[in-house]
Please model this.
Amino acid sequence: MGKIIVRDITTYAYHGCLPSEKKIGGIYKTTLWIQGDFSESEIEDDLNKTIDYEEVSEIVVSEMNKSSDLIENVGRRIIEKMMVNFPNIKKLKVKVVKIKPPINADVPQVEYIIKKKR
Model:
């Protein structure tokens, strides 16, 4: 079993419960830890036997472009889409980070982590 990490896919999105968050938007970073049997790609050097990073990035960007109140909802959508698009995934962990959330405290970021396995 191998692990592919696609780290800090940075997007500008419009998530949040406050109307200002939906209007102004903010910076988000998404990281995916993808586990599966990639031994065929190790031997055959074939992109079709592994995870295409470009497709991973496209999934994240697509789901981040759909406004949600909660990053929990975005994380769930990303993980579900990944599991459908990549049947060779055995375990998946997704972290969605909201940079500088608009709260009354000095908080540099808020993170949500979701995991799924088959």
Summary: The chain has a mean pLDDT of 95. The two ends are 14 Å apart (CA to CA). The beta strands are 2-13, 26-36, 89-99, 109-117. The chain has one domain: 2-117.
